Amino acid sequence: MFRNKIKHSILVYIAWIVSLSSYGQTDMQRPNVIFIMSDDHAEQAISAYGHPISQKAPTPHIDRIASEGALFLNNYCSNSICGPSRAAILTGKHSHKNGFMQNGNRGFDGTQQTLPKILQQNGYETAIIGKWHLISKPTGFDHWEILNDQGDYYNPYFITERDTVRRMGYVTDLITNLTTDWLEHRDKNKPFFLMMHHKAPHRNWVPAERHYKLYENTAFPIPETYFDDYEGRYAAAQQEMNIYRDMYEGHDLKMVTGIDSDTLLYDPWPHAFLETMTQAEQKRFFAAYRDRNNDFYTTKRTEKEKALWKFQRYMQDYLATVKSVDESVGEILDYLKANGLDKNTIVIYTSDQGFYLGEHGWFDKRFMYEESFGMPLLMSYPKHIKPGIKIDGLTQNIDFAPTLLDLCQIAIPDDMQGRSFKALAQNGRTPKDWRKSLYYHYYEYPGFHSVRAHYGVKMERYKLMHFPKENLWELYDIKKDPSEIENIYGRKGTEKITQELQQELLMLQDKYGVDEKYR
């Protein structure tokens, strides 16, 4: 009897030691990472951020990431355009250091150090599915299947290392299906790093067929600056990205030549729209828009009313295109939970930059103004991030790579210019030694939309921008003027803050090694 008790005690003790050991292994197990990035998805169109536009078109599945993790309130890009932002995310470096400064570059230098390469070298299985848009072939990925250039909304071509295949269907759904298929067939003995990159909601905002009429009767709130006159802002006045003046009425706004017409007014890139649809798909597309297009011709409108009509058409299509992205995120989150991966997987949702939804009368991005400089960031990781926290600290896309390496218990290379925000994500509090400013630089001029090259510095309250070719400056008090319509540079009383920001700007340029030719 006594011996049985001793034997039982020993077995209990061994079981306790084993349980502690197992707990330690589970706790120290490196996390999986799913990095979900859409294209041109504005914060205003994510309901977790609370903007009035998004309340009319909520994104409940994307919001789940914030409710289960963190919502970043002050996250920004380093260069607000597709390719350069992607290069910054991959390398943790500003454009002038990673070499991809504008979309017209010859190609991303795939021989350089990148986040997926480092993870791959440390035992991760890596994959990218969807939009790449860096001209060169992906490196550092065990599997890649990318869209050809921008990709098409319907029946797009996907490029792999072996061949190019046309897949029939809607691009967002196809990317989601390819992603879940890869998750099913991955090496289950390795942690994984997966980048799911959606084309949507990039121009020209073609919704999935099931969503053509989703918001046709919804009136979205019009930004107060929709009819901005750009007084005191030379570069803003010179752009070519105004909704009611510069949008292509056929390609962008789905407008046709007349009543009951099945011919678009103007489509400069038919390969990116109707040419990729089957005849049956084209027929259903025109049928879905016919009543609204007929109404445009049968209702007499002033020029101002036409401008407002175009805003509503833009919003209806843009937000209907977002709907499929939100559904995709829901499918991925459900997959993780159903397969027991949700507890040990970092999920990130972001976009390559922000986007204008009518502010200043605009669509597109490029400028350092808040709507396109800011980029959404939602992140969950149950082992590290408390549910529902909001992060105020200044973060940037060059921080993504060092943060993920930090969370995956991998050393951060010294030459990465970003900084891990692991500490911010842990409890939402901003450390005392956290950065007080951000550097931005846009290079692509002359270029599409005629946005002048510029750089600048953002601090908590103030922002200073410089357009070097024109030698023009803009200064904004974001607290008093969040819409950035009042350029206060050179005004009496701004001398001290201007000097402080110019000194901060020089400090950042020196810190990041910006060559004199780019200053």
From TrEMBL:
MF terms from GO for this chain are: hydrolase activity
Keyword annotations for this protein?
Hydrolase
The source's superkingdom equals Bacteria
CDD domains for the chain: G6S_like
What InterPro entries does UniProt report for this protein, alphabetically?
Alkaline_phosphatase_core_sf, Phosphodiest/P_Trfase, SGSH_C, Sulfatase_CS
The Swiss-Prot or TrEMBL record describes its family as follows: Belongs to the sulfatase family.
| Protein name in UniProt | Sulfatase
- Which source organism? Sphingobacterium phlebotomi
